[in-house]
Every structure is written in structure tokens, then in C-alpha cells.
Amino acid sequence: MDLTFTPSFATSRDMGVYLHIPFCRKKCSYCDFASYEGLEAYYDDYVDALCAEIKLWAETYPKSAKIPVNTVYFGGGTPTQLSLIQLEQILDTLYTLYTYYPCDSVRELSMEANPGEIDIDYLKGLKSLGVTRLSYGVQTFDDDLLQLLRRGHNAHMAKQAITDALSVGFQSVSGDLIYALPGQSLNDIKTNVKTLVDLGVSHISIYGLQLEEGTNLHKQVELGDLDLPSDDENEAMYDCMLDELSANGFERYEISNFTNNGSYSYHNLRYWQYKDYLAFGAGAYSFYNNVRRNNEPYVVPYINRLRQELLPVVVEEKISEDRAVEDFCFLALRTKWGLSEKAFNERFNMSVRDIFGDEIDLLIKQGLLIADVDTWRLTRDGAKHGNYVFSQFIR
Questions:
Q1: How many CB atoms lie within 10 A of CB 1?
Q2: Element (H, E) at 352
Q3: pLDDT for 369
Q4: Would you state the pLDDT for residue 99?
Q5: Which pLDDT score is estimated for 97?
Q6: Cα-flanking dihedrals φ and ψ of residue 339, to 5°?
Q7: Contact 130, 105 (CB under 8 A)
Q8: What residues of the chain score a pLDDT lower than 50?
Q9: Helices 352-365 and 341-348, interaxial angle, to 10°?
């Protein structure tokens, strides 16, 4: 296992910024995120509200705004539903209109996108705005399944999107794949991985289908119109994806994330390293100074709150030390670097072994954790049964 990269900035004081764009051309049948189709009339008002939130937060919590920004991530929804001018307006607010957010040390600016929705000129525009990383929601290269998922692209569009991104000079391009879809086979899994690898991406994220209540896909399954793979088939697909990715030179650095050349998602590493991040936009979640804050998820109420110069936070949760200890442990275990006694002691001034020694010994005996000096990491079986492993660190 290559551990030459160490997330050394894990204990440094820097900030990540997440910007949520909740608009989609089509709402996917499996999606329960804060994302909406058919709201084009609100795009301008939403961008104005998002910029207002950035300023209002900096005025309300000025200390947070003095911390150097390390990563910026546009997520959604589909951020590229916005025009380049609108994206520039958001970045100008973050970078230059106010001096609140020191962004001269940004190492990564990520943008989520859907295949088939942006062209070469738009990609060049993203580069000119400083975007360094693109993440495409490919999901599968099976056209029938793409239609079932209500994706707005087909396999050809996905291939062309990645080819175009690489052709204009993006060095870091990621593709998402979903497994355990209705009717999916192991051969489909192999085809999806091989196609994505052959296209030249440097990062791949894999996700098992989650059947979320209230989604169209959930309703179809409940009505008996669709059958999902069995648990055994699901596990076989998972193992197949891991084998195929490994055979093609992709290393897993987090339970669902793989890279073949160290092209980590540095913004997402913040979450797993239990670092602070600010999040702006409808439905966005922040974590700052041990407080989690959830924003108003609906677009019009979000806009209206900002017009009244009110922060759109609707839920605040102060994280206790006990909860922080639990979160730190299972988030660290998601990564290949694992749970470090040294990092834990620096954060909490206590020993992991003193708190979870019995649980760690049991998990090692079960073959789910492996010990390496003062660090514990998931085995392959441990990653497969991650939820069980993580539950052992919840008191």
C-alpha cells in the first residue's frame, strides 16, 4: 500500500468552501438531495442570494473568514446549469469583492458536471475561472439503465464529455459509477470500469445504489415494477468492481474512491480528516468550530431569507467531545491512512487504545482491522462491512 502521501495538513488551520447549486436539467429517479428541475427562472436570484450568504456569514463570523481557503467545491444538483458569468460572480464574491476569504492558497477547485450538458467552450471557460478538477456523474454506460435512472445523457455523451475535458487540458477528471442497479450483471460492471479507465480518467468513485424513500425509483420497487439485485449479487458486484479497479492500477484511498496517480479529492479529504468547512447555498451543510449547521433546503425560502439579510441556517448542532471522538474515528477509518494514535492524541489529548482498545482487538481478531505500529486500517473485508466496523466506535 502506497502511503507516501500523508494528509499532513490535517492539523493545520485552513478552510474548505462548499458551494451548493441545487438545479438540475432532470431530477434523477434515485436522488433525494436538495436538487430541483424546472427552476430556471430563479437562477439569477439564487446566485445573488448565494453571494449575499457568503458576505453575511463573513460579517457574522469574521474569524472564520480570516482562515486561508484550501479547497473550493461546487456541488449539486448540477453546478454547470449556471452560466460561466454566474459562476464567475460567485467566485468573485468569494475571492475579490471582499477580502474576507484568503484564497491565494487554494490547491483545488472542483466542479461537478453531467455529461452532455456542457461543450468545449464552456469547459475552456471553466479552466479560465480556475477550475482544476471535474467530476462527472457517469453512473453507467448502459443506455437503458441511464434512461431508467432519468439521467440526461447516454453512453456516447459520457464518453465524449470525458474526452472533451481531457482535450482542453484538465489533469484531474473523475467519473462516478453506481452498482447494484436493477438488471445489472457482473459483465456490465466490468464494462463500466474498463470503459471509464480506457477513457483516461484519473479518479473513480463507486456507489452502491441506495433506495431512498420518496424517490421515483423507490416507488417503482415498492410497486413491484422493478427488482433489485439480491444481497449476494450486490456483494459480488462490489467485489468485481474492486478487482477490476485494482487490475487497472487504481488504488482505493477511501471506501468509495480510487485513483491511479494520486489525484485525490482534496476537498473530500477534509470531511474524512474531520476538518472545518463552510458550505453556502440551499440545503448546504457546514462544520465549523464543532458546530454542524444545515441550511434551508428549498430555493424560494432560501432566497427570501437572504433578502431579509438573515442567515439561512435552520438547524444547528453543537458536537460534544464524545460525539467528536466517535466521528473522528470512523471518518479516519474510511481512508487508507486509517486511524492514527498520534493524530487522535493531538486532537483530543487522549489515547484511542484507552477508549476503544477492546473494540480494536475484537475487530483485528475478526479480520476487519489491521494494525500497523500506532495506526489501524480497514482490511478489504473491513471496508465491505464498514458500517459494522464504524458502529463499534459509537458509544
A1: 11
A2: helix 352-365
A3: 97
A4: 64
A5: 58
A6: -95, 115
A7: no
A8: 1-5, 8-11
A9: 150
Q: Which stretches within 17-154 are classed as H helix?
A: 43-60, 62-65, 84-92, 120-128, 143-148
Which has the closest alpha carbon to 278: 53, 7, 99? 53
Q: What is the CATH number of domain 321-392?
A: 1.10.10.920
Q: Are 188 and 237 in contact (CB under 8 A)?
A: no
Res 8: pLDDT: 45
Q: What is the pLDDT of residue 101?
A: 81
Instruction: Tell me the per-residue pLDDT of 240-254, one tens digit each, with 9 for 90 and over.
Output: 999 999 999 999 999
**Superfamily, domain 15-273:** Aldolase class I (3.20.20.70)
Dist. CA 87–CA 42, nearest whole Å: 15
Identical fold, 15-273 and 321-392: no
279 closest CA partner among 297, 264, 254, 266: 297
CA distance 230 to 236: 10
**Helix, strand or coil, per DSSP, at residue 38:** coil
Can you read off the three cell numbers belonging to residue 368?
Answer: 476487519
DSSP class of residue 115?
Answer: T
Where are the chain's structural domains?
A: 15-273, 321-392
Comparing CA positions, the residue from 255, 260, 292 lying closest to residue 277 is 292
Specify the length of the chain in residues. Answer: 395
Cβ atoms of 374 and 243 within 8 Å: the answer is no
Determine contact, residues 337/371, Cβ cutoff 8 Å.
Answer: no
Exposed / middle / buried, residue 353 (Cβ in 10 Å: 0-12, 13-18, 19+): middle
Could you report the per-residue pLDDT of 161-178, keeping only the tens digit for each?
999 999 999 999 999 999
Over the range 280-303, which residues count as b (16 or more CB within 10 Å of their CB) and which as e?
A: bbbbbebbbeeeebbbbbebeebb
Rounded to whole angstroms, how far apart are CA atoms 276 and 296? 20
Residue 126 makes CB contacts below 8 A (sequence gap 6+) with 80, 84, 87, 111, 118, 134
- φ/ψ (deg, to 5) at 370: -125, 140
Q: Which three cell numbers stand for residue 84?
A: 460561466
